[in-house]
Amino acid sequence: MAQRKAGIIGDPISHSMSPTIHGHWLRRFGLNATYLAMHVSSDRVPEHLKALADEGYSGINVTVPHKERVFQLCDDLTPTARAIGAVNIVRFANGKYIGDNSDAYGFWAHLKQSLNNQRYSAPKRDALIVLLGAGGAARAVLFALKSQGFNNIRIANRSQNKAEALASTIGSGIATPWAERRRIAEQAALIINSTSLGMAGQPPLFEGEEKPAFGPEQIVYDLVYKPLETELLAIAKAGGALAIDGLGMLLHQAVPSFDAFFGQTPTIDPVLQTLIVNRIS
C-alpha cells in the first residue's frame, strides 16, 4: 500500500505543533504515513497546493496567514468552513480541494471536556459571554457558541469596526468598546480571550490597567497556550474561577484533521499532552 502523505502549510511554520501531534498518532496507529510542516509564502500558496495534490497528498492543514486565502481557492466547502470564512483543513479528492474548519469543534470539545472534568455546569444559553478579539480564532469561537444556542454574547476588540464586522459575518454577538472589557468580563459567566495578548513576547491583556475581579461561578478560557498560564488565567485562579488554557483546543482541533487524512479517529492521551507541554516549555 502506498504511503499516505499529509502536512501543514504556514508562514512562519517552525513553531507548529502539528507534526508532533500527528506524528504521535501515526506511531500509535502504526500507519505507513508521513506528516510534514512546510513553509509556504503567500504568493506561492496556489502552486504549492497544486503540487501537493499532484504528488498524491491526502490533504493539508492550513495555519496563519493562509486560512482565508486557501478558503478562496477551495472548490467545495463544508457548511462550517463557509460560515467561518476560513479553512484549516483541505482534502484533495478527485482533483478538487475540499475545505473544512475544525477550530470551532476544537474549542467546544475542549470546553465541554474541561467542564466535565471539573464538574462545572455549562453556562445557560442566555448567560452573558464575553469574547475578546475579532480575528480568525474569534470567528471560530463565535460560530461554535452560536451553534450551541448561546444568544447573549459581547465582542470586545481593539478595533471596534472588526468586532462589528465579526458579529455581522457570523450573525451573532454585539460589539462592545474595548475599554469596557474589564467591566463586562466581571459580569460574564464565560470569558474567552482569542487575542494574542498574554502570549509569550506580547503585552498582557490588562497592561497598566486595573485587573478584573473574577469569582468561583465564572469560567475563563484563554486560547493562548504559550505560556500555559497567562496573566489572565492567573487572575482567574486567584478569584476561584475555572481557568482553561488553550492547549486542549490545539489538540482537539487536530482530531478531525487526522481522521480526514488517515481514516482513523485518534484520542488525546497523557503521552501526547506531555509531548506538547515539553515542546512549549
Describe this structure in words.
The protein has a six-stranded mixed beta sheet, with helices on both faces. It has eleven helices and twelve strands. The relative contact order is 0.14. With 281 residues, it is of the alpha/beta class. Helix 7 links the parallel strand 8 (153-156) and strand 9 (174-176). The model has no long low-confidence stretch (mean pLDDT 96).
Category by helix and strand content: alpha/beta
Estimate the strand proportion.
Answer: 15-25%
Strand order of the largest sheet: 2-1-3-5-6-4
Radius of gyration: 19 Å
Give a count of the beta strands, DSSP E runs of length 2 or more. 12
Average pLDDT: 96
Please identify the oligomeric state: single chain
The shape is globular
Q: Helix coverage percent of residues?
A: 40-55%
Please trace the helix and strand order, writing H or E for each element: EHEHEHEHEEHEHEHEHEEHEHH
Distance between the termini: 38 Å
Parts with pLDDT < 50 across at least 5 consecutive residues: none
Please give the count of helices: 11
Largest sheet: 6 strands, mixed
